[in-house]
Design brief:
Helix content: 25-40%
Structural class: alpha/beta
Order of helices and strands: EHEEHEHEHEHEEEHEEEEEEEHHEEEHE
Number of helices: 9
Distance between the termini: 27 Å
Mean pLDDT: 95
């Protein structure tokens, strides 16, 4: 039977989901039985402005949810209780209490939730994870991730919740670490787990901003786990030079580098980076799991608990610190941080925070000694 799929949230990033769903519907892979958005959307599928009405009228088998993060939990819960499996965009939920609540509902309803960490469908990440688990890098001593992109001021005002710390008293998680560079953090945590790491134990973070926003556009985060190697993620959205996103895994017997957005991987013995083909679409994987539960989900909600724990802890870290104007350079009609592309790579390579590298504009990190721990077994 052709699966019945619906989309909740079809503007912004949701538009890319709508394009893929419409294409799959034309190919006969699925039936697009409904689209929900508060704004007018061009679609041949029935259009709704209330997801509950969509669930009642369309009776989908699976629902893709691409709405603001602070709305994810109630929509996902409603979908599961209506009998649908869920593909939930990242970040999946706001904290571990919401994570536990969604796990509980999934267990009660027998439904599953896949989280939109597309990089977890990467064959390059799978190969690197296997390499780490097999011990081919020896004992992994550190994992560093670096990324440097450009986002103009308009990016932080693209929707009412963009650049905001909270809306109506609820976190919205739009900072660089929780949203655009969430894949870097999630992949690094997956690799740390493969290297024997447990739940995140403590962290130190430096958060900065260039424009007048409530969240960070530039950050450096170091996470210590219960066992396994430490993880450092250094990223910026205010860079005149582009660093696609690379994760360095260093061990006693070798070093590997994964460029996670492009699936380019360099293992010991490789003369140059090589592209590993075969990335798996997460919706296709979810539908395959529905058809045959022996097909494992690539990004199940349970696997995102460490990520959610870190993001919950980060929300305690207070507002980001402005980067002084003297360290900014003009770029595309706005301001970039001078030398930030080189700095994030240096930080990731040395597992050092910006302040520990003697960066003139850096301040002392916010240290969180105890990262929250999930109180319920994942479902």
């Amino acid at each position: 039977m052709t699966p019945r799929v619906a989309l909740v949230g079809a503007a912004g990033h949701g538009a890319s989901h709508l394009d893929r769903l419409a294409g799959a519907a034309r190919d006969g892979t699925l039936d697009l039985v409904g689209v929900c958005d508060l704004r007018p959307i061009e679609t041949e599928a029935p259009l709704y402005t209330d997801h509950r009405e969509l669930l009642r009228a369309a009776a989908p088998d699976a629902v893709v949810v691409c709405t603001p993060p602070h709305t994810h939990l109630p929509i996902a819960v409603d979908a599961a209780r209506a009998g649908a499996d869920v593909l939930l965009e990242k970040p999946p939920v706001l904290d571990l209490a919401e994570h536990a609540e969604l796990c509980r509902v999934l267990g009660e309803t027998g439904r599953v939730c896949q989280v939109g960490f597309q990089a977890l469908g990467s064959p390059a990440l799978a190969e690197l994870t296997t390499t780490v688990r097999a011990g081919h890098l020896g004992t992994v001593t550190r994992i560093g991730a670096a990324g440097a992109w450009w986002r103009a001021d308009e990016y932080f005002h693209r929707v009412p919740w963009a650049g905001r710390r909270s809306v109506d008293g609820r976190p919205v998680l739009d900072g660089a670490l929780a949203n655009p560079f969430a894949h870097a953090l999630m992949d690094a945590l997956v690799l740390a787990t493969a290297a024997g790491g447990g739940h995140p134990r403590s962290l130190a973070v430096e958060r900065y901003r260039v424009t007048d926003i409530e969240v960070e556009d530039t950050a450096c985060l170091r996470v210590e786990l219960a066992g396994g190697p430490p993880v450092l993620v250094a990223v910026s959205l205010r860079s005149a030079r582009f660093v696609a996103g690379e994760i360095v895994v260093a061990g006693t017997a070798g070093r590997a580098v994964l460029e996670y957005p492009t699936d380019r991987l360099t293992l010991p013995g490789d003369a140059a980076p090589r592209t590993v083909p075969g990335r798996v679409d997460l919706l296709a994987n979810l539908l395959a799991h529905r058809a045959d539960p022996r097909v494992p989900l690539l990004a199940p909600l349970a696997a995102t608990a460490p990520f959610t724990a870190v993001i919950e802890a980060l929300y305690r870290a207070g507002p980001p610190v402005p980067v002084p104007a003297g360290h900014l350079v003009p770029h595309q009609g706005a301001s970039a941080i001078e030398g930030i592309a080189e700095l994030v790579r240096r930080a990731a390579g040395r597992l050092a925070l910006f302040s520990e590298l003697g960066t003139a504009w850096a301040v002392a990190p916010h240290v969180i000694e105890e990262v929250p721990v999930a109180q319920a077994a994942p479902a």
